[in-house]
Design brief:
Blueprint (H helix, E strand, L loop, with lengths): L10 E4 L7 H12 L4 E4 L4 E6 L3 H11 L8 E3 L6 H4 L6 H9 L4 E6 L14 E5 L4 H10 L3 E2 L14 H8 L5 E4 L10 E4 L6 E4 L5 H8 L33 E6 L6 H17 L4 E5 L13 E4 L6 H17 L4 E4 L7 H12 L2 E4 L1
Parallel strand pairs: 1-8, 2-8, 4-6, 5-9, 11-14, 11-15, 12-13, 12-14
Antiparallel strand pairs: 2-3, 3-7, 4-7, 5-6, 9-10
The structure holds adenosine monophosphate (AMP) and magnesium ion (MG).
């Protein structure tokens, strides 16, 4: 078994995100067509792709990531017509959603067609589909001539990669190549909605706020507690939600408020916990916001602000790279602040809770 992070992929193509070199795209596509696995940027995070119906290639994706085989992959399309190849009984709303959100960070779960191998869907009768809003991803899918199955290009359980460097750190030469187009736009994964139930169910909050999707659907989307990053009982029924996720190597402790956030109480608790762990000789990291950063600077801790508490886009975007920065500084304990659970705040709280080993309510 290869060591984590060993080596580099045989091919690294540096490309312009808006106008990638067609030769790089062609080369990457031909590796995919011959059964290889290639990492590529999307507007959310980097993905690790295989052509969806080449089963051996799909298996390589699971192996490279050390991903459990029952955690299904999202299929990426470059045209709406590919949806009818992958799914059956497509409800009318899919057209509305696609018109408004594709290309973009919305993944739609539908009944799968017989063409989709069971390895892709973890044995489920449903398939997850999206059209990414990134020129490199779209051109790669077009050149490959088929939908591409692609989970995030990180080792299973680690924070998703927002740069090619993160992909190389995690997957090294376990993959055949990587298209490097710099940092991704959102830095957090797509929103996943299951349209096979009524009302539609949120399986994973992501970079498209649920409220925006509800406006188009004209109905409330059901938000199960696991989609908020809470609850143990539901874990077994929602694919991909039963494992600890998005985690740094350090132990992350999330300080939350019981109702509306009382930031004074949160800061006081984080200071108390920091002092305690520093006293034990631990290296402490504090994940905070611009509004609270100054409150921690007297402590001998690594302090990272994710941005203003009013700017969820920035907070979501900086979350994964910041968790990786703490790891590179060999921090033992990360103490994190909460945000309000609305819009992208729901996504941020889901990721923080799933990355955490402990939650403390103040
Ligand atoms: P990743 O591509 O690593 O961001 O993970 C893809 C996620 O999409 C999975 O963990 C599931 O939450 C969701 N997903 C993918 N395919 C399906 C499916 N067939 N049914 C339900 N959820 C899915
Ligand atoms: Mg993932």
């Amino acid at each position: 078994m290869k060591k984590e992070g060993s080596g580099v992929p045989a091919k690294i193509w540096k490309v312009d995100p808006s106008d990638p070199d067609p030769r790089a795209i062609e080369e990457a596509a031909s590796i995919l067509k011959s059964g290889g696995v290639v990492a590529f940027p999307t507007e959310t995070v980097y993905g690790l792709g295989a052509i969806y119906n080449l089963v051996e290639a799909v298996k390589k994706v699971f192996q490279a990531k050390k991903r459990p085989m029952d955690n299904p992959l999202i299929l990426h399309v470059s045209s709406f017509s590919q949806v009818s190849e992958l799914a059956v009984d497509i409800p009318l709303e899919v057209h509305e959603l696609a018109k408004r959100f594709w290309p973009g960070p919305l993944t739609i779960v539908l009944p799968k067609s017989a063409r989709v191998p069971r390895e892709v869907t973890g044995g489920l009768g449903k398939v997850a589909i999206r059209m990414p809003a990134h020129n490199v991803a779209l051109k790669l899918i077009e050149a490959a001539g088929a939908p591409i199955a692609a989970p995030s290009a990180n080792l299973s359980g680690r924070p998703s990669p927002t740069t090619a460097q993160h992909v190389i750190e995690d997957l090294g030469d376990a993959i055949d190549g990587i298209l490097d187009a710099g940092e991704t736009l959102y830095g957090v994964e797509s929103t996943v909605i299951d349209l096979t139930s009524r009302p539609p169910v949120l399986l994973r909050p992501g970079s498209m706020p649920v409220e925006e999707i509800e406006k188009v659907l004209g109905v409330k989307i059901f938000i199960p507690s696991f989609a908020r990053g809470l609850g143990e009982a539901e874990k077994a029924v929602a694919p991909g939600t039963k494992y600890r996720h998005y985690s740094p190597r350090a132990t992350l402790i999330l300080v939350e408020s019981r109702d509306t956030i009382n930031i004074e109480k949160v800061v006081a608790k984080i200071r108390e916990l920091a002092t305690y762990h520093l006293g034990l000789g631990k290296k402490v990291g504090i994940l905070c916001t611009d509004e609270t950063r100054d409150r921690y600077l007297d402590l001998p801790a690594e302090v990272i602000s994710l941005g203003s508490r009013r700017d969820f886009f920035q907070i979501a975007k900086r979350l994964y790279p910041s968790l990786r920065t703490f790891d590179s500084k060999n921090v033992d304990i990360i103490l994190a602040e909460p945000v309000e659970e609305r819009g992208l705040g729901l996504t941020i709280m889901n990721r923080l809770r799933k990355a955490s080993s402990q939650r403390i309510l103040v």
